[in-house]
Amino acid sequence: MTAGKDNLMAAGPRSGFGIWLDQHLYSFVASLGRVLRRPWTTLLTIGVMAVALALPLGLGLALENLRHFAGSVEQSREIDLFLKPEIEVARAQALAAELRGRGDVAKVEVRTPEQGLAEFRARSGLGDAIGALEENPLPSLLIVTPGEDDASLVAALDHLPETGLLQHDAAWRQRLQGWLGFGERLAWVLAALFGLGALLVVGNTVRLDIQSRREEIGVLQLLGATDGFIRRPFIYLGAWYGLAAGALALGLLAAAAYALRAPLHVLAQSYGSGFALTGLDPLRAAGFLLAATAVGWLGAWLVTGHFLRQTRPTET
């Protein structure tokens, strides 16, 4: 007995950091136990939060995939320069070499009339009718990829003496970029609104839990417990809700992507594209889980702080 007492005295009292760590560990485990003891309430709260978090994230991922499906920025900026029918292939290749020397041109591809006719025959299914033609009616085509400034390049190409027809649908590209930009802004607005909704859901759930432990909290306040000590288990409770809701939201999005993968693959093949849906990479998924946990933590912190301010004993 004396030896045990001597060992305890030799060890000395616990440090303030050790006590603080023990309190956090206890609150961490106790809050998880409260979550598991009420499965239906927990599932309802987590489910509502998960849907609220998944909707704006799903919209953002859909817009990101739409950008990939519409083609890269470089492809959408290509200029189709159809030369006059009398321009020979040798002159077309020489003109392409001249254009490659310009500073505002990134790349030039030459497509001969024979190549264009073969591609048209393969895509149109009119092989017999095309074979009956006595001569090839298609001109040489230069596919020009501009550098930074495509407006001045379009004007220069349009004034070339060899130019027969120039196609550069800049207005379509600008409209597409405008719609995608609007969609991104809409996704951020919805993220803020649904994030606020998730915060209110977890706040209300924690408020109900606080009300059920109102007498216990009153006793702790009378015994001199600090607000931080009382608030800590409820904050961890909110964090658990947020983390579980974030994980469920990622699961819902993964299930939605699996359901859409097959029909989207068929649609992409009809456009001659090998496009496939892309989801969140591990780093962004971890960031989303951290953000969802922070939403739960913040909701619990706000509600608990409001309750403690309302019930703090007054000094006499």
From TrEMBL:
Keywords carried by this UniProt record: Cell cycle, Cell division, Cell inner membrane, Cell membrane, Membrane, Transmembrane, Transmembrane helix
Domain FtsX extracellular span(s) in chain numbering: 78-150
Membrane spanning residue stretches: 43-63, 186-206, 239-260, 285-308
Membrane topology note: Multi-pass membrane protein
Coiled coil: none
Gene3D superfamilies: 3.30.70.3040
Signal sequence, start to end: none
GO biological process: cell division
Record keyword Nucleotide-binding present: no
Pfam short name (any one): FtsX_ECD
Location of the ABC3 transporter permease C-terminal domain: 189-309
Claim: Transmembrane is one of the keywords in the record: yes
Location(s), subcellular: Cell inner membrane
Subunit structure and binding partners: Forms a membrane-associated complex with FtsE.
Function comment: Part of the ABC transporter FtsEX involved in cellular division.
Family: Belongs to the ABC-4 integral membrane protein family. FtsX subfamily.
PANTHER family referenced in this protein's UniProt entry, alphabetically: CELL DIVISION PROTEIN FTSX
Name listed for the protein in its UniProt record: Cell division protein FtsX
